[in-house]
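Whether sequence alone determines local backbone shape is best considered at the level of individual chains. When preparing material for the folding task, we compiled for one chain both its residues and its backbone structure tokens. No coordinates are needed to read the tokens, only the vocabulary itself. For completeness, the protein is quoted in full, as a sequence line and a line of structure tokens:
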Amino acid sequence: MIDFVAAQRGLGATTARLTPEALDLLHGYHWPGNTEELDHMVAFLVGRRPAGSIRPEDLPETVRPQSDFPKQILEDLEELVGAERFRVLAGDEGRRRFADFLCAFGSERFGAGEIQRFLGLGRETARRLLRSLEQRGLIHGERGARGMRVTRYSLRNEPEK
């Protein structure tokens, strides 16, 4: 099924790149989002590791054995849901997936397009979410070459792994 989803996205055979340990974790996952979640997972994995073997540490936190999620990120996202009413973050699973997405980037930068694809949001909703996260101090926005608008983001304080 992973290769089918990858082929639909034009990403090629992905399961051949999965280590046996990573494949076992994916097989053991309960997939609450069904095929939509699988689609997001494949895009995440290939985006995170475009070449080479995909190892367990490359998988999102939701798939790996449960460790402590960065509590501050989850608390901020929960507050954000109450204040801004972002439906995609309304459920516990949605907040955990998004917290994992943010932690996966760590000190690396990401853009609104990556948020859009991962959460299936429209451009303006993704930008509004990013502005809210920036106002709360969770992420930091970097202005583009002319300083006109924010083009890339990063976590303000990288969570400990």
